[in-house]
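Morning, I've got a small favour to ask if you have a moment. I've dropped the whole record in just underneath, so have a look.
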Amino acid sequence: MKTAKFVDEVEIFLRAGRGGEGSSAKKRTKRGFVNWGGDGGKGADVYIKGNPHLFDLSKFLNKKVFLGACGENGSSNRRKGRDAPSLVIEVPLGTLVKDGQGKVLWEIRDCGKILLAKGGRGGKGNFKRKEIIPPQPGESRKVILDFRICADVALLGESNCGKSTLISKLTNLKPRISDFPFTTQLPVWGVVERDYRVFTILELPAIIGGKEEKLLGLRFLKHTQRAKVLIFLLDAEKPPYEEKISSIKGVLNKHGIDYSSKKTLIVINKIDKINDKNLPQNYLKISAKENMGIKELVDKIFSFLR
Protein backbone atom coordinates (compact mmCIF):
# COMPACT_ATOMS: atom_id res chain seq x y z
CA MET A 1 0.00 0.00 0.00
CA LYS A 2 1.36 3.42 -0.99
CA THR A 3 0.49 5.40 2.09
CA ALA A 4 1.95 8.57 0.53
CA LYS A 5 -1.31 8.88 -1.42
CA PHE A 6 -3.66 8.06 1.44
CA VAL A 7 -6.87 10.09 1.07
CA ASP A 8 -9.79 9.69 3.48
CA GLU A 9 -12.16 12.53 2.51
CA VAL A 10 -13.21 14.04 -0.81
CA GLU A 11 -16.17 15.90 -2.32
CA ILE A 12 -17.52 14.73 -5.67
CA PHE A 13 -20.23 15.91 -8.06
CA LEU A 14 -22.48 13.45 -9.86
CA ARG A 15 -25.27 13.76 -12.36
CA ALA A 16 -27.48 10.99 -13.68
CA GLY A 17 -28.11 10.72 -17.40
CA ARG A 18 -30.75 12.64 -19.29
CA GLY A 19 -33.44 10.63 -21.02
CA GLY A 20 -33.24 10.12 -24.78
CA GLU A 21 -35.29 12.26 -27.15
CA GLY A 22 -38.55 10.93 -28.47
CA SER A 23 -38.75 10.60 -32.22
CA SER A 24 -41.00 12.77 -34.41
CA ALA A 25 -40.76 10.39 -37.36
CA LYS A 26 -43.74 9.95 -39.65
CA LYS A 27 -44.84 7.05 -41.83
CA ARG A 28 -46.41 7.44 -45.22
CA THR A 29 -49.61 5.42 -45.73
CA LYS A 30 -52.40 5.35 -48.30
CA ARG A 31 -54.32 7.77 -46.13
CA GLY A 32 -51.38 10.13 -45.72
CA PHE A 33 -48.70 10.54 -43.10
CA VAL A 34 -49.11 9.17 -39.57
CA ASN A 35 -46.95 9.72 -36.51
CA TRP A 36 -44.57 6.78 -36.12
CA GLY A 37 -41.82 7.93 -33.71
CA GLY A 38 -40.55 5.80 -30.82
CA ASP A 39 -39.81 6.79 -27.23
CA GLY A 40 -36.37 7.71 -25.94
CA GLY A 41 -34.44 5.47 -23.56
CA LYS A 42 -34.00 6.14 -19.85
CA GLY A 43 -30.89 8.00 -18.69
CA ALA A 44 -28.26 6.25 -16.56
CA ASP A 45 -28.83 5.93 -12.82
CA VAL A 46 -25.83 6.62 -10.56
CA TYR A 47 -25.11 4.10 -7.79
CA ILE A 48 -22.47 3.77 -5.10
CA LYS A 49 -21.21 0.44 -3.77
CA GLY A 50 -18.49 -0.90 -1.51
CA ASN A 51 -15.36 -2.59 -2.82
CA PRO A 52 -13.35 -4.65 -0.29
CA HIS A 53 -10.22 -4.23 -2.42
CA LEU A 54 -10.10 -0.43 -2.05
CA PHE A 55 -8.33 1.03 0.97
CA ASP A 56 -8.64 4.79 0.59
CA LEU A 57 -10.17 7.47 -1.65
CA SER A 58 -7.07 8.40 -3.66
CA LYS A 59 -8.77 7.30 -6.91
CA PHE A 60 -10.94 10.42 -6.62
CA LEU A 61 -8.02 12.87 -6.60
CA ASN A 62 -8.01 13.11 -10.39
CA LYS A 63 -11.70 12.46 -11.02
CA LYS A 64 -14.32 14.27 -8.97
CA VAL A 65 -17.10 14.66 -11.53
CA PHE A 66 -19.24 11.68 -12.56
CA LEU A 67 -21.77 12.02 -15.37
CA GLY A 68 -24.21 9.28 -16.30
CA ALA A 69 -24.81 8.56 -19.98
CA CYS A 70 -27.93 9.82 -21.74
CA GLY A 71 -30.57 7.42 -22.96
CA GLU A 72 -30.63 6.60 -26.65
CA ASN A 73 -33.00 8.63 -28.80
CA GLY A 74 -36.12 7.01 -30.16
CA SER A 75 -36.32 6.39 -33.88
CA SER A 76 -38.76 5.64 -36.66
CA ASN A 77 -40.91 2.53 -36.84
CA ARG A 78 -41.81 3.12 -33.19
CA ARG A 79 -38.37 1.93 -32.07
CA LYS A 80 -37.63 2.77 -28.47
CA GLY A 81 -34.14 3.99 -27.67
CA ARG A 82 -31.98 1.83 -25.39
CA ASP A 83 -31.75 2.67 -21.71
CA ALA A 84 -28.31 3.89 -20.69
CA PRO A 85 -26.31 1.50 -18.46
CA SER A 86 -26.04 2.50 -14.81
CA LEU A 87 -22.94 4.30 -13.57
CA VAL A 88 -21.52 2.61 -10.45
CA ILE A 89 -19.04 4.42 -8.20
CA GLU A 90 -16.97 2.11 -6.01
CA VAL A 91 -15.61 3.15 -2.61
CA PRO A 92 -13.87 1.36 0.28
CA LEU A 93 -16.00 -0.43 2.85
CA GLY A 94 -16.53 1.85 5.84
CA THR A 95 -17.10 5.00 3.75
CA LEU A 96 -19.69 7.49 4.94
CA VAL A 97 -21.69 9.29 2.24
CA LYS A 98 -22.66 12.81 3.34
CA ASP A 99 -24.60 15.62 1.76
CA GLY A 100 -23.04 19.03 1.14
CA GLN A 101 -23.79 20.11 4.73
CA GLY A 102 -22.03 17.09 6.23
CA LYS A 103 -25.16 15.12 7.18
CA VAL A 104 -24.58 11.38 6.92
CA LEU A 105 -26.85 9.83 4.29
CA TRP A 106 -25.49 6.28 4.14
CA GLU A 107 -22.71 4.13 5.49
CA ILE A 108 -21.19 1.71 2.98
CA ARG A 109 -20.86 -1.58 4.86
CA ASP A 110 -21.11 -4.14 2.06
CA CYS A 111 -21.00 -4.54 -1.72
CA GLY A 112 -24.68 -3.78 -2.29
CA LYS A 113 -25.59 -0.86 -4.55
CA ILE A 114 -27.23 2.35 -3.25
CA LEU A 115 -28.98 4.74 -5.63
CA LEU A 116 -27.49 8.25 -5.46
CA ALA A 117 -29.12 9.89 -8.47
CA LYS A 118 -31.96 8.69 -10.69
CA GLY A 119 -31.69 8.88 -14.46
CA GLY A 120 -34.17 10.97 -16.41
CA ARG A 121 -37.18 9.41 -18.10
CA GLY A 122 -36.95 9.12 -21.87
CA GLY A 123 -38.97 11.48 -24.04
CA LYS A 124 -42.18 10.23 -25.62
CA GLY A 125 -42.28 9.84 -29.39
CA ASN A 126 -45.15 11.09 -31.47
CA PHE A 127 -46.71 7.65 -31.98
CA LYS A 128 -50.38 7.87 -30.88
CA ARG A 129 -49.94 11.53 -29.92
CA LYS A 130 -49.81 14.81 -31.77
CA GLU A 131 -46.47 16.03 -30.37
CA ILE A 132 -43.44 14.52 -28.74
CA ILE A 133 -42.92 14.88 -24.98
CA PRO A 134 -39.41 16.07 -24.04
CA PRO A 135 -37.18 13.86 -21.88
CA GLN A 136 -36.41 14.51 -18.24
CA PRO A 137 -32.95 15.52 -17.01
CA GLY A 138 -31.13 13.24 -14.59
CA GLU A 139 -30.84 14.11 -10.91
CA SER A 140 -27.63 15.78 -9.75
CA ARG A 141 -26.01 16.31 -6.36
CA LYS A 142 -22.76 16.89 -4.51
CA VAL A 143 -21.73 14.37 -1.90
CA ILE A 144 -18.85 14.10 0.53
CA LEU A 145 -17.13 10.72 0.82
CA ASP A 146 -15.65 10.21 4.29
CA PHE A 147 -13.65 6.99 4.64
CA ARG A 148 -13.29 5.46 8.12
CA ILE A 149 -10.87 2.56 8.56
CA CYS A 150 -12.61 -0.53 9.94
CA ALA A 151 -10.08 -1.79 12.51
CA ASP A 152 -10.70 -3.80 15.67
CA VAL A 153 -7.72 -2.33 17.50
CA ALA A 154 -6.19 1.17 17.39
CA LEU A 155 -2.58 1.77 18.49
CA LEU A 156 -1.96 5.22 19.98
CA GLY A 157 0.98 6.94 21.61
CA GLU A 158 3.72 9.52 21.32
CA SER A 159 6.41 9.63 18.66
CA ASN A 160 9.20 7.05 18.75
CA CYS A 161 7.55 4.81 21.36
CA GLY A 162 7.76 1.74 19.09
CA LYS A 163 4.33 1.68 17.42
CA SER A 164 5.70 0.80 13.98
CA THR A 165 8.02 -1.85 15.41
CA LEU A 166 5.11 -3.43 17.26
CA ILE A 167 2.79 -3.51 14.25
CA SER A 168 5.58 -5.04 12.16
CA LYS A 169 5.89 -7.86 14.72
CA LEU A 170 2.14 -8.45 14.86
CA THR A 171 1.44 -8.33 11.11
CA ASN A 172 3.20 -8.84 7.79
CA LEU A 173 3.45 -5.09 7.29
CA LYS A 174 6.83 -3.45 6.91
CA PRO A 175 6.27 0.19 7.93
CA ARG A 176 9.11 2.67 7.95
CA ILE A 177 11.00 2.33 11.23
CA SER A 178 13.75 4.63 12.51
CA ASP A 179 15.14 6.18 15.68
CA PHE A 180 14.05 9.61 14.53
CA PRO A 181 10.79 11.05 15.90
CA PHE A 182 7.65 11.46 13.78
CA THR A 183 8.65 8.73 11.31
CA THR A 184 5.06 7.54 10.86
CA GLN A 185 3.13 10.21 8.97
CA LEU A 186 0.01 8.34 7.81
CA PRO A 187 -2.23 5.59 9.20
CA VAL A 188 -0.99 2.03 8.77
CA TRP A 189 -3.21 -0.99 9.32
CA GLY A 190 -3.01 -4.73 8.88
CA VAL A 191 -4.29 -8.13 9.96
CA VAL A 192 -3.12 -10.17 12.95
CA GLU A 193 -3.74 -13.93 12.72
CA ARG A 194 -3.02 -16.44 15.47
CA ASP A 195 -4.40 -19.99 15.74
CA TYR A 196 -7.20 -19.32 13.22
CA ARG A 197 -8.24 -16.18 15.06
CA VAL A 198 -8.02 -12.79 13.36
CA PHE A 199 -8.22 -9.12 14.21
CA THR A 200 -7.28 -5.92 12.38
CA ILE A 201 -4.99 -3.33 13.95
CA LEU A 202 -4.46 0.32 13.08
CA GLU A 203 -1.42 2.45 13.89
CA LEU A 204 -1.81 6.21 13.92
CA PRO A 205 1.01 8.77 13.80
CA ALA A 206 1.91 10.43 17.10
CA ILE A 207 -0.91 12.23 18.92
CA ILE A 208 1.10 13.53 21.92
CA GLY A 209 4.69 14.52 22.66
CA GLY A 210 5.29 17.45 20.33
CA LYS A 211 3.99 20.65 18.78
CA GLU A 212 0.49 20.29 17.38
CA GLU A 213 1.60 20.85 13.78
CA LYS A 214 3.90 17.83 14.10
CA LEU A 215 1.28 15.57 15.68
CA LEU A 216 -0.04 14.21 12.40
CA GLY A 217 -2.10 11.56 14.17
CA LEU A 218 -4.58 14.22 15.31
CA ARG A 219 -5.93 14.51 11.77
CA PHE A 220 -6.66 10.78 11.63
CA LEU A 221 -8.25 10.26 15.06
CA LYS A 222 -11.65 9.73 13.42
CA HIS A 223 -10.37 6.32 12.30
CA THR A 224 -10.38 5.10 15.91
CA GLN A 225 -14.16 5.48 16.22
CA ARG A 226 -14.89 1.95 15.00
CA ALA A 227 -12.14 0.31 17.06
CA LYS A 228 -13.26 -1.93 19.92
CA VAL A 229 -9.88 -1.84 21.69
CA LEU A 230 -7.52 1.10 22.19
CA ILE A 231 -3.87 0.44 23.02
CA PHE A 232 -2.01 3.27 24.74
CA LEU A 233 1.64 2.49 23.97
CA LEU A 234 4.17 4.07 26.33
CA ASP A 235 7.97 4.26 26.17
CA ALA A 236 9.54 2.61 29.23
CA GLU A 237 12.35 5.16 29.09
CA LYS A 238 10.02 8.16 29.23
CA PRO A 239 8.07 8.38 32.49
CA PRO A 240 5.88 9.65 34.10
CA TYR A 241 3.49 7.13 32.60
CA GLU A 242 0.33 8.41 34.26
CA GLU A 243 0.93 11.83 32.76
CA LYS A 244 1.24 10.32 29.27
CA ILE A 245 -1.98 8.34 29.75
CA SER A 246 -3.82 11.48 30.84
CA SER A 247 -2.49 13.33 27.81
CA ILE A 248 -3.76 10.65 25.43
CA LYS A 249 -7.18 10.64 27.10
CA GLY A 250 -7.29 14.44 26.95
CA VAL A 251 -6.58 14.40 23.20
CA LEU A 252 -9.32 11.81 22.60
CA ASN A 253 -11.82 13.85 24.61
CA LYS A 254 -10.90 17.02 22.74
CA HIS A 255 -11.57 15.36 19.40
CA GLY A 256 -14.85 13.74 20.43
CA ILE A 257 -13.59 10.14 20.72
CA ASP A 258 -15.48 8.30 23.49
CA TYR A 259 -12.74 6.02 24.80
CA SER A 260 -14.87 5.06 27.83
CA SER A 261 -17.07 2.95 25.54
CA LYS A 262 -14.06 0.91 24.37
CA LYS A 263 -11.66 -1.53 25.99
CA THR A 264 -8.41 0.20 26.89
CA LEU A 265 -5.06 -1.56 27.21
CA ILE A 266 -2.02 0.24 28.69
CA VAL A 267 1.20 -1.22 27.29
CA ILE A 268 4.76 -0.21 28.23
CA ASN A 269 7.25 -0.92 25.45
CA LYS A 270 11.09 -1.15 25.41
CA ILE A 271 11.35 -2.97 28.74
CA ASP A 272 14.62 -4.49 27.50
CA LYS A 273 16.27 -1.11 28.08
CA ILE A 274 15.41 -0.62 31.78
CA ASN A 275 14.95 -2.53 35.02
CA ASP A 276 11.55 -4.22 34.81
CA LYS A 277 11.17 -4.12 38.61
CA ASN A 278 10.79 -0.35 38.55
CA LEU A 279 7.76 -0.46 36.24
CA PRO A 280 4.12 -0.34 37.39
CA GLN A 281 2.74 -3.83 37.87
CA ASN A 282 -0.78 -3.07 36.59
CA TYR A 283 0.36 -2.45 32.98
CA LEU A 284 1.28 -4.94 30.29
CA LYS A 285 5.03 -4.84 29.62
CA ILE A 286 6.63 -5.76 26.29
CA SER A 287 9.67 -5.26 24.11
CA ALA A 288 8.50 -5.22 20.50
CA LYS A 289 12.07 -5.17 19.23
CA GLU A 290 13.07 -8.26 21.23
CA ASN A 291 9.69 -10.06 20.88
CA MET A 292 9.16 -10.00 24.64
CA GLY A 293 5.54 -10.14 25.84
CA ILE A 294 4.06 -10.17 22.31
CA LYS A 295 2.14 -13.41 22.83
CA GLU A 296 0.65 -12.12 26.10
CA LEU A 297 -0.38 -8.92 24.34
CA VAL A 298 -2.12 -10.77 21.49
CA ASP A 299 -3.91 -13.08 23.93
CA LYS A 300 -5.12 -10.07 25.89
CA ILE A 301 -6.46 -8.40 22.75
CA PHE A 302 -8.32 -11.56 21.71
CA SER A 303 -9.86 -11.78 25.19
CA PHE A 304 -11.16 -8.21 24.80
CA LEU A 305 -12.63 -8.98 21.37
CA ARG A 306 -14.67 -12.01 22.43
